[in-house]
Amino acid sequence: MKPNNTQHKSFLWHLNFEPFTRHTFYGEQCPPFVTEENKEAWRRYLKKVIKKHLKAEVMNTPEFRDIELQIREEKLLRIK
């Protein structure tokens, strides 16, 4: 599918819980209270919470700006 506005790149986000194996090379390990029985409830809950925060005005918060600064510093370190 081609984006309507070629000046703007679109992004997708996806939240899922996968079994942890010794071959897993991405993601973060969940706390032990996330189980096979409740992982879908956690996925839906976190998706709902993320949607509340995934707004342009969040970019003006100190927490977001701190993370942006941290990312810029990490990029500079990799360049050096």
Portion in strands: under 5%
Report the order of strands and helices.
Answer: HH
The whole-number mean of residue pLDDT values reads: 87
Q: Which residues sit in consecutive blocks of at least 5 with pLDDT less than 50?
A: none
Quote the distance from N terminus to C terminus: 38 Å
Rg of Cα set: 17 Å
User: How many E-type strands?
Assistant: 0
Number of distinct helices? 2
Q: Label the structural class.
A: mainly alpha
Give the helix level as a range of percent: 40-55%
Major sheet size, sense and barrel closure: none
What coarse outline follows from CA principal-axis ratios? extended
Descriptive report:
The chain contains 2 helices and no strands. With 80 residues, it is mainly α. The mean pLDDT is 87.
Keywords:
80 residues; mainly alpha; 2 helices; extended
Brief write-up:
This protein has about 80 residues and is mainly α.
List the helices and strands and how they pair.
Elements: H1 39-53, H2 62-79
